[in-house]
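HUMAN: I'm a chemist; might I ask for a sequence paired with its C-alpha cells?

ASSISTANT:
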Amino acid sequence: MFSKLSDIDNIMHKKDAYALGLRLNALSSLCRALRTEEAVSALTAALDKLETGYFTGDISVDGLKSFMPGTALYTAYDFTGDEKYKNAAVKLAEGFKNLSRNDKGYFKDEDEKKCLCKAYMYETFYMAYETKDGGKEQYNDVIAQYNAMNDELFATAKYSKDTDKALRSLSIYAAALIDTMEVMDQMIYEIYRKMQDYYKASVKAVLEAGYGVDGFEDMDDETELMFAYAVLKGCRMKAVHTEKIRRNSIRCM
C-alpha cells in the first residue's frame, strides 16, 4: 500500500498540483495516525521526488494549490528531524507575503473563483507555519480569513440547489477546518473554538444535505472520502459529539 501511495510519478507527469497535494496530505495524515517507519518512509520517498525548486511560494502557475504540500513537509521534518523539509516549508511559506486579497480580505486565487473548498489549499499550512516558524504573528489573519470566507460563502453553499457542489465544498471545508485546528496552538482557545464552531456547522450541513439525496449515495468518491476523513478526525480530536456524529454519518461510509 505504502509503495503505491508514494509513487507520484504519474501525478507529476500530469502536472496536477491538486492531486499531488491530496496525495501528500494523505501520506502526512497516515504518518501522524500510524507513527510507523513504513509510513514515514513513504512520505519522504514522495517528497524527495520533488525538486528543491518546486517549493518556491510562486503561485503564478498553480495558484493556491501550490501551498498544499506544506503541511506534509512539516510532518516529514517532525518525524525525521531532517532540516531540508523544514527549510522547504519555510521557503514555500514566503509566498504568503506576496498574495493578493479579494474584496472580502482573504487570499485571492489565480482563477479568482471563490469557494469554501479553497481553504483546504492553504489555511492549514498557513497555520502550521505560523505555529512552528512564524511566531504566531498571523494567527489573527488565519481566523480573519476563515471568518470572511464563512460569512460570504457558507450560507450560499448550505442552501445551494446544486447539492453535489454543496456537498463537495462543505466536506472539503470541514477537512480544512479540522486540519487547521490540529496544527495550531490549542491554548489560544478563542480562535480554536471559533474554528470548531465552523467545523461543526459544516458537518451538520453535509449531513442535512446528504439526507436530501437518498442518503449519501450521490456523493462522488472525493467528497465521500473527505467527509469521512473530516468526521473521523473530528471524533478523534473530540471536536464533535462522537457517538451522535458517528451514528448519523455512518451512512456515508
Q: What stands out?
A: The chain has a mean pLDDT of 91. Residues 130 and 136 are 5 Å apart (CA to CA). The longest helix spans residues 189-211.
